């Protein structure tokens, strides 16, 4: 197991360099307003101030020098005054706000994690639940409903669904009830609502497509597992239908579902750019999207770096959880 | 009349499909007593497995439907029984072993857990006692180091060992009847012999009845007391093992025997002698004997009338219009003609 984890971490090295290098190259050739000008908006900065800022952020240097500096700053161990010290990783400073990038993400990450956890809960409860009902009552009304609604959901664009939910629950409902009942459609907190209410609409929006996929995977896996010989063996042993379903079929059928949900959690931890933007949710996805428009490259680089590590860690955890579900992986056996 | 352990009486299991009614089992009858072994032989699709699954209530209904007949187990009808009562018999009083030991065990649970399950469900064992009994069962079926092997997963066992585990699982509750559905088909020949030997040994010890479903006539000749030859869902020939093997009556049984490679009577130049053609479709079967299209001895009457099972000699039945007739005998030359 330890060997496996080490291997996975080593595999991460080329991924890291590939992604960050590509990012530096793209940003170097990216057209549009220059980052310093963005900071001053409509005003024209004094030339000496502009020159000083360009020098301060190293924007006068070629991209590979900038990349090298980024790597050095990222290293948690640095030489300070000739001595090797643990300084922690440094993600640089935002051009737009002048604040440390690390601080920006430490502030925004809790929002992303909160939203991701809500979405994953919906995905697990609704997705797996609907999939199981659908498979157990194959061809029933419930099954047709689940199959049909998930087909529609997976094809809906997330931002469109978000806008529709905002319209229905935030505006239409408010008008229909004379302002008595509605849901907040923007931000993470307000005086009118407790904080958790703000999670409802973005949570549903973020969970929608994945929940539909989870339900479909659950359904097809359970139907497939139900045709396996060992399920017939379980019936022949005298187990009840429920015993067969929960003890023998579910543990096998869940393996691909857990993988999907785990990878999805990784993706959500990387920030839900669309959902967070539609709902003005102050998470990393929202911050990243805004930084791109502001050409605030240190924040973009920092954000992508943080996401890279988050996704890697989640994927590793998913792989490890696999081994707990499937003994064939745990023991490195291939069966026959 | 003493009560038989198992009475199968004109059992009919039909499947209602979009293409029509498939008469998978169409009128099978026999009796079985404790300590007896019944060999059920036939080609794939002859209904030999389906008839066993029907008894166990393991056929999904629909599409399956019992269209007639009955199965009496210790005097009680398994067909009329409700699901809950039948579940108490499954794995407890009647246990089953399946063809493919590779896929018949759940890959994500330890062997011990899977062995313990029937004991916990049917006999009210505690988890601890059931695991202890699981070790004993593994020892009984000849698995070395059962104390440690009980904690292993199925993929850590070879095919033969897995089939031993399956047998141990079937034996867990000391069943009256053990149904073995092609238990050796997926195994190496040397392992096959070991498994058969093991089953015989266990039968001697427990006096249970065995229904051995197979297409391997060698296995049947080895262990069966009675033989049921099935063709297209119907019994072709039923009788004591010696009668069926030494005095076979039905042309289909003759064909089966001729299609076994035999080094003692065939020299290298002689080809194998298979039964010509394919088994018929079980949907909308035409009238007449279902074996007629493939039968080298078929006459006009075979196309017109379905032969019923007739007792030709004591305890020896065949479903052929001519079975037992003077001069109606197996013709080896007919085979030579086919292969030429």
What does this structure look like?
The complex is a heterodimer of chains A (336) and B (340). Chain A is mainly alpha-helical and 336 residues long. In chain A, helix 1 packs antiparallel against helix 4, helix 5 runs antiparallel to helix 10 and helix 9 packs antiparallel against helix 10. The longest helix of chain A is centred in the middle third of the chain and has 36 residues. The mean pLDDT of chain A is 86. In chain A, strand 1 and strand 2 form a beta hairpin. Chain A is flat. Chain A is 70% helix and 2% strand. With 340 residues, chain B is of the alpha/beta class. Chain B starts with 5 loop residues before the first strand and ends with a helix. Chain B has an eight-stranded mixed sheet, sandwiched between helices. Chain B is built from twelve helices and twelve strands.
Radius of gyration of chain A: 25 Å
Report the β-strand fraction of chain A as a percent range: under 5%
Work out the oligomeric state of the chains in this entry: heterodimer
The general outline of chain B is globular
Sheet of most strands of chain A: 2 strands, antiparallel
Which blocks of ≥5 consecutive residues of chain A have pLDDT under 50? none
SSE-based structural type of chain B: alpha/beta
Sum up the overall morphology of chain A in one term. Answer: flat
Which percent bin holds the helix content of chain A? Answer: over 70%
Structural class of chain A: mainly alpha
**Which whole number gives the mean pLDDT of chain B?**
82
Largest Cβ-defined interface: A-B, 25 and 32 residues
CATH topology of the largest domain in chain A, by name, is MetI-like fold
| Number of helical elements of chain A | 14
CATH superfamily of the largest domain in chain A: MetI-like
Work out the radius of gyration of chain B: 21 Å
Alpha-carbon distance between the termini of chain B? Answer: 52 Å
The largest β sheet of chain B comes out as: 8 strands, mixed
> Percent of residues of chain B in beta strands?
15-25%
Strand order of the largest sheet of chain A: 1-2
Average pLDDT for all residues of chain A: 86
């Amino acid at each position: 197991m330890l060997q496996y984890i080490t291997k996975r971490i080593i595999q991460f090295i080329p991924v890291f360099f590939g992604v960050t290098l590509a990012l530096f190259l793209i940003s170097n050739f990216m057209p549009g307003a220059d980052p310093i000008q963005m900071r001053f908006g409509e005003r024209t900065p004094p030339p000496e101030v502009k020159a000083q800022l360009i020098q301060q952020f190293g924007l006068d240097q070629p991209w590979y020098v900038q990349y090298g500096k980024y790597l050095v700053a990222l290293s948690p161990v640095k030489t300070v005054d000739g001595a090797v010290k643990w300084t922690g990783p440094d993600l640089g400073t935002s051009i737009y706000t002048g604040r440390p990038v690390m601080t920006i993400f430490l502030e925004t990450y809790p929002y992303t994690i909160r939203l991701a956890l809500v979405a994953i809960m919906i995905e697990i409860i609704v997705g797996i639940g609907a999939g199981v009902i659908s498979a157990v009552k194959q061809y029933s009304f419930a099954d047709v409903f689940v199959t049909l609604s998930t087909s529609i959901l997976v094809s809906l664009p997330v931002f469109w669904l978000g806008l529709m939910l905002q319209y229905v629950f935030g505006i239409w409902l408010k008008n229909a009830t004379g302002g008595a009942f509605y849901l907040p459609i923007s931000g993470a907190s307000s005086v009118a609502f407790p904080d958790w209410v703000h999670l409802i609409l973005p949570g549903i929006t973020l969970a929608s497509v994945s929940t539909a996929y989870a339900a479909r995977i659950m359904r097809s896996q359970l139907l497939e597992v139900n045709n396996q010989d060992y399920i017939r063996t379980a019936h022949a042993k005298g187990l009840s239908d429920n015993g067969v379903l929960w003890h023998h079929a579910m543990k096998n059928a869940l393996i691909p579902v857990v993988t999907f949900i785990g990878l999805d959690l990784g993706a959500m931890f990387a920030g839900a750019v669309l959902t967070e933007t539609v709902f003005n949710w102050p998470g990393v996805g929202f911050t990243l999207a805004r930084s791109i428009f502001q050409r605030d490259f240190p924040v973009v680089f920092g954000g992508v770096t943080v996401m890279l590590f988050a996704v890697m860690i989640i994927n590793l955890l998913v792989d490890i959880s696999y081994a707990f579900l499937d003994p064939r992986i745990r023991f490195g056996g291939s069966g026959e | 009349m003493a009560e038989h352990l198992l009475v199968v009486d004109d059992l009919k299991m039909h499947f209602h499909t979009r293409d029509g009614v498939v008469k998978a089992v169409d009128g099978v009858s026999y009796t079985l007593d404790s300590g007896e072994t019944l060999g059920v032989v036939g080609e794939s699709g002859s209904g030999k497995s389906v008839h066993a699954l029907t008894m166990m209530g393991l056929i999904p209904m629909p599409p399956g439907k019992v269209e007639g007949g009955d199965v009496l187990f210790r005097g009680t009808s398994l067909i009329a029984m409700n699901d809950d009562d039948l579940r108490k018999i499954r794995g407890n009083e009647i246990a089953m072993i399946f063809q493919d030991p590779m896929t018949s065990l759940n890959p994500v649970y330890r062997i011990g857990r899977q062995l313990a399950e029937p004991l916990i469900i049917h006999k009210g064992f505690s988890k601890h006692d059931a695991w202890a009994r699981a070790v004993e069962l593994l020892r009984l079926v000849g698995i070395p180091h059962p104390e440690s092997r009980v904690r292993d997963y199925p993929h850590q066992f070879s095919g033969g060992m897995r089939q031993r585990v399956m047998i141990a699982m079937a034996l867990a509750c000391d069943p009256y009847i053990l149904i073995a559905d092609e238990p050796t088909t997926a195994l190496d020949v040397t392992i096959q012999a070991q498994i058969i030997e093991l089953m015989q040994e266990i039968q001697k010890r427990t006096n249970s009845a065995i229904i051995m479903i197979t297409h391997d006539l060698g296995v049947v000749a080895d262990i069966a007391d009675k033989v049921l030859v099935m063709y297209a869902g119907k019994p072709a020939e039923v009788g004591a093992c010696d009668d069926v093997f030494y005095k076979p009556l039905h042309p289909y049984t003759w064909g089966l025997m001729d299609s076994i490679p035999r080094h003692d009577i065939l020299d290298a130049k002689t080809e194998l002698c298979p039964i010509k053609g394919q088994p018929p479709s079980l949907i909308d079967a035409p009238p007449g004997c279902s074996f007629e299209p493939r039968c080298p001895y078929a006459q006009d009457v075979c196309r017109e009338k379905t032969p019923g099972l007739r007792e030709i000699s004591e305890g020896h039945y065949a479903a052929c219009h001519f079975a037992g007739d003077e001069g109606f005998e197996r013709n080896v030359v007919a085979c030579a003609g086919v292969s030429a």
